[in-house]
Amino acid sequence: MTTTRREFVQRSAAGALALSLGPLAANTSAATRLTPAQLSALRSAVRGTVFTPATKGYSAASQLFNTRFNGIDPPAVVRVRDANDVREVVRWASRFDIPLVGKSGGNAYNGASTSSSAVVVDVGSLSSVSLNSSGVATIGPGALLLGVYATLARRGATIPAGSCPNVALGGHALGGGMGLAGRNLGLALDRIQSIQAVTAAGELRTCSASQNSDLFWALRGGGGSFALVTSMKLRTQKVRSAAWFFARFPKGSRAAALEAFDDLAPGAPAALTSLCTLTSGGATVFGQYFGSEANLRKLIAPLRNIPGASISVGTSSYLSLMTRWAGCAEGASVAQCENIKPQPFDASSIYVAKKLSSAARSAFVSAANTGATLVCDSYGGRINDVSPSATAFVHRNVRFSVQIVSYAPISTARQRVNSARKLIAKYGNGQAYQNYSDLDLSSPLQAYYGANLKRLESIKAQVDPDDRFQLTQGIRS
Ligand SMILES: Cc1cc2nc3c(=O)[nH]c(=O)nc-3n(C[C@H](O)[C@H](O)[C@H](O)COP(=O)(O)OP(=O)(O)OC[C@H]3O[C@@H](n4cnc5c(N)ncnc54)[C@H](O)[C@@H]3O)c2cc1C
After folding, report:
1. Which residues are within 8 A (CB) of 466 and not within 5 positions of it... i.e. 6 or more apart?
2. Which of 101, 288, 435, 471 is the best mutation target for the ligand 1 pocket, counting ligand atoms within 8 Å of the beta carbon and taking the most?
3. CATH topology of domain 241-447
4. Burial code of 79-111, b = ≥16 C-beta within 10 A, e = fewer?
5. Which listed site, 12, 35, 416, 427, has its alpha carbon 20 to 30 Å from 386?
6. Which atom of ligand 1 lies closest to the CA of 178?
7. For the segment 51-92, what is each residue's pLDDT rounded down to a tens digit?
8. 129-238 domain in CATH 3.30.465.10?
9. Are 266 and 378 in contact, with CB atoms under 8 Å apart?
């Protein structure tokens, strides 16, 4: 297995110029600047570092992973030291009526963790990971996924989450958190037992099924519009190893590979989570199985009938599998692997709830021919065991999600993604994954939250009536 999910997603970046034409619908209104009195009050309130356009390090502090947002200059970025700093920033912001946005790993597709008018509260340093004897992990929102896997693996445990090493648990789990253990262990947010968060009133609160339960509900899927998360407790799973498979198909077999994936993946035993990618040059189907290699071979046998199939199957220690899905170079340390160069990209997503027809499969192939990559993540299993209204994450009755993505100069990327989306949107259920947010959606909140939107708006009005947390495509009071 030499090619990973991330490489597939990033393949279309090959040769891309680091040219950013700037954001389209992100928060680009004229940059707000803090007055000297506001700035001095902020600096005295926190122990962490406050970056402003006049400070050394401001550019790096305000940059996101997606360089299309490089043109957005927030009034300040506060790199907090601890939860108390977060509380102090919120109290300061209420005193001067200044909006805030949270930032953990800076990977928001829609640029929601920066703003030209809101101060950025960067909780990246709240990144500790610990595990108690009952198998409950306490993890800071700034912890990057590969580091989380590595720390937990030393104790023979894991949480389900995405495969990209530089994504932080904070934004990831607040929006869902889908990865190669998803059908077996659920989304990252399904494992959360409680959350510590600073509310708009400037109070550090524990949110769980029994305390601040509305806020707990909203934070699991509703994103960062409700409070600033300072730590989470998640139920871990014991695991030492898993089986994996990786299948490649030539260009002419893309429709057949997609058909086999659609037949196999969403209804497979929950122990198997698989993905299918389509590009202009070919297809892959790959996945992870919590069981024996022999059983896995039986489950994926139909893939062998597809012309040109090349399939590898194996078993790995769990951490080595995570580092391979993450696309780490052989022998790279966790820190080296997490250090990915920022790039411009555009993306969108749809959810497929019905089996694809032959016309739909042809449309998917045409969509891949635009130059965008389609990445289909199978749902079902434990993800769909949860009711759509049990958390704010509504997408529980679907077969798979399709991420449509292009790493390229932003005008090219956007044109590819929008053309591809147009071709396949009618085969979706109208919803979109909030972690693959898209600035070009016409009704984004409806697409991300569906039937849960009303309750989210009502909770926002209760917990943040002054709209302290103002995110691009966020829920507003
Ligand atoms: C290369 C790449 C690969 C990815 N792979 C996957 C994948 O396999 N599976 C998957 O499900 N997703 C994946 N994602 C999407 C990822 O889950 C989202 O981009 C996620 O929002 C990133 O979280 P972050 O904390 O890193 O980013 P940020 O930009 O810091 O945060 C994202 C959002 O959450 C809010 N937020 C962040 N921290 C806090 C906090 N502490 N309190 C309140 N609000 C906060 C921000 O304001 C913003 O709205 C991938 C993204 C990238 C760039």
Report:
1. 94, 97, 200, 477
2. 435
3. Vanillyl-alcohol Oxidase; Chain A, domain 3 (3.40.462)
4. bbebbbbbbbbbebbeeeebbbbbbbbbbbbbb
5. 427
6. 11
7. 999 999 999 999 999 999 999 999 999 999 999 999 999 999
8. yes
9. yes
